[in-house]
Amino acid sequence: MNNSYSYRNAKESKVAEDIKKAIENNNFSLAASISQKYLEDTNNIPLNIAVTGQSGVGKSTFLNAFRGIDNTDERAAPTGEVETTMKPKAYPHPTYPNVALWDLPGIGTPRYPADQYMKLVEFEKFDFFILVSEIRFNENDAKLAKEIKKMGKKLYFVRSKIDNSLRVAPRSQKEYDEEKTLQEIREYCIRGLKEQGVASPQVFLVSSFDLHLYEFRALQDTMERELPSHKRDVLILALPNICKSTIYKKKEVFRSQIWHYALLSATVEAVPIPAISIVVDVGILVKVLQDYLFGFCLDKRSLEKCSSSTNTPLDELRAMLNCICCGKDVTKELVLLMLKSATVLLIGLAAEEGSRWIPFIGIPIAAALSFTTIYKFLRSNLNELSVDAENILTKVLAIK
């Protein structure tokens, strides 16, 4: 797993070096401003994902599921058996507005003929394409694939409604074998695309109603691996929590930013907190904990949705959670309560370190008790919340 994130060290090296120089010159204000700019730039990197396919293939349902919402949500892309997409339309991620999934019209329609499709949809703005089909990929799909490859973009084929296919398969097979059926479907799609001149097509079998089954996880891993390094964290945070490895990856993204937020909270607008022997900008901690809740789907709305979809009382779900902020509005008052209940232990741990070091970049800051305490506070809560997210996932999957 560490190799998957080795790019992060390279990405941060210049920033880390600048911060180190600022701190060595006792210029903590400059160090904090460098961290702040880095976080702002990183958290606003755009990611545009194009989803295309013919009408009725489950394109909009897939797009909604990818964003973690169902078809009845007011933010959902409209679904239907007739073509509902007349022009490219962006659907922002509900938590990360810098991430947008674009619902594109199907290729080969009167409005979007195959030979003009790439120009009409302005393909340059998309980071990669996902082409959805219910049964087989046709000639126009193959033309699009070859054009996208020619332009240096990535395209992934999604064979949708795989749950429907498996539901009816036993009726036509004397000895039904699910794995064999899945392999035959995949090979059929790949063979059809190769016959139409598509080299090495990547086909993934997906059920939009059960993303944890079949090959959506493989699609996630492939997209992550093939994206430019500076966009990988953006994708990881936007992915639905369908498996523990996704939760772990999100935790690692959040963890890589903790020392930046700790530096900001301990230096920018930090004020002494009564009964706590450190200075803190509580507003920054409110923002970070809110980000954790939304990223792990432990915010109030997500827990209510989970309660409804699993027919589990909300109080029963809450009883499974350890972190005090789960399912709550994170306020300054709540953060102060959390700090006061944890600070005695955290300060003790920080003091034991003697000469302290900022994690990852090795800068001594012996005077920064506040930094070390805040860092440990955020790391402790991040670990706790990731475990809570895994507990909720286990509950959901057990019911499904």
UniProtKB/TrEMBL annotation:
GO terms for molecular function: GTP binding; hydrolase activity. Transmembrane segments: none annotated. The keyword Magnesium does not apply. Coiled coil: none annotated. The keyword Flavoprotein does not apply. Keywords: GTP-binding, Hydrolase, Nucleotide-binding. Residues 45-226 form the IRG-type G domain. GO terms for cellular component: membrane. Belongs to the TRAFAC class dynamin-like GTPase superfamily. IRG family. This is Interferon-inducible GTPase 5-like. The lineage of its organism: Eukaryota, Metazoa, Chordata, Craniata, Vertebrata. The gene is LOC115549186.
